[in-house]
Amino acid sequence: MTTIRLEAEDDFDGWRTAARALVLAEVPPESVSWQVGDTAQDLFASADTTPPPPADAPAFSVSRGFVALAEEVALHSDPQRFALLHALLARLRHQPRLIEDRADALVRRCEEMAKAVRRDIHKMRAFVRFRSVTEEDGTERFVAWFEPEHHIVRHNAGFFVRRFATMRWSILTPELSIHWDGNALTEGPGCMKADAPQDDPAEAVWKTYYASIFNPARLKTGSMLREMPRKYWKNMPETALVPGLIAGAQAREREMILDAQVKAVPGGNSQLAIDALREEAASCRRCPLWKPATQTVFGEGPATAPLMFVGEQPGDQEDLAGRPFVGPAGQLFDRALGEAGVDRATTYVTNAVKHFKFEPRGKRRIHSKPGTGEIEACRWWIEQERDIVAPKLTVALGATAAQSLFGRTMTISRSRGAPMALADGSECWVTVHPSFLLRIPEVDRKAEEYARFVDDLRRIGARVAELAG
Ligand code: URA
Q: Rounded to two decimals, what is the model's pTM?
């Protein structure tokens, strides 16, 4: 047994260096024990260092997609994560396209782990609540307590630095604490909940706000806040309201609930989560497309829409307006939706890629198709949008959307017109992209294809109504 010791739970670089050497030296993954820190003892370990690769070992490279996946999987709390990644890397050396095979059990497992990590990262960003404390020197510091499921705290630190750059803050978690003093980020040991302040007058304001967006109908069905699991409730000031809202025993409370129900933004908590995600996406740097683009074009529509449309990427007009499907393709889409009897206002419309990719040509910006790397990088957002909105039915408009949703290239003509299952088991339909219709030169064929598109949308509308009961 070879033991590899990594410096920390999230030591991706350490894993990468060691795993690469192990794979080159053809050390079988099952004969490696991955340990974190120097406290774990492996009595049967025969070596503590990575074997040097043979001098004549051929170099091999892996796709950016794998690196992105591995970076996320490495943050998972599963103690097997480094071993699983090692096994995947070893197979990738001989099957470079394995990562695209979502039917492969190991690829699927890693994808699921990465997804869980992404969800945890987003939850921390959306649901950390700071409480104000006055320090000994009289300065104000904002302190939050958070219990992540995975090893995401260090990874998330940059987000909080950017977001709260001018505040002095600390985030305490059981594994480590991070502190920002306006200039430098420092780390400290893990803490206990009792180390964090429990009260803040500002909470009263938050509680009032929370009551006003609270959707009691969801409470009654017990399906409160998919995006805010119970384990987080206890750390959020607003949850002090929950027992009262659930019990609803007193008339005043009942009145308050009814009042809140009337005033409530439907699905107010999904709305909060999607707003937080939109804000976060505004500074997305996950691929280089943000540089020449005007802005991130995020999805729009009700955060609890039963129907979600996914397009390819914003076009020239969407890039300027900051809204999806408002240019020529969007206008055609609106017309087709109208003819199919689907109200766009009840749907959530988004794109697989959130920045406009183009080639400058004189004063014009010519649409350029996003590549697999860009689609993969942007899946970070679409998966979280789907997670929050939880549509009953998702529609892929064209090949890029289908590739993003299914994780593999698909032929529209072959997949069109029948429901398919996404990895989470929900239903997805594939149809053409409205831009395809705009590009057809022959009048008759254009009319024919448009009618087919409307027909697809009509069937989709009927199916959603059926699914939504
Ligand atoms: N095409 C798309 O795929 N999305 C838009 O938002 C506009 C055009």
A: 0.60
